Amino acid sequence: MTITNVKIRRLMESGKLRAIVSVTFDDELAVHDIKVIEGQERLFLAMPARTLPNGDFADIAHPTSSELRRKIETAVIEEYLRVKSET
User: Which residues have C-beta within 8 Å of that of residue 47, sequence separation ≥ 6?
Assistant: First the structure.
C-alpha cells in the first residue's frame, strides 16, 4: 500500500490539535479526518473515530500493523511540518 497524497485540510494555531489531514492510498482510497495532535514529547496521529452513545470512541479506520502506522505518521508529520513552515 503506497501513500500517494497527503493533504493538510486545516491548520490550528492553538490547543493540542494541530491539523486535520486526508491521506490517499494507491490513488484509490482516501481516509479523511486524521488528526495531528501535539503530545508532551512529540506529534502523533489520531485516526478518524466516532462517538458511541455511551461516550466512548470507536475507530472508523486504522492501520492494522505498526509498520503501516509508522509509514502514515511519518508521511503526515513531514507534510504538516512542510506546510506549517510555509505559513
Answer: 31, 34, 59, 60, 61, 62, 63
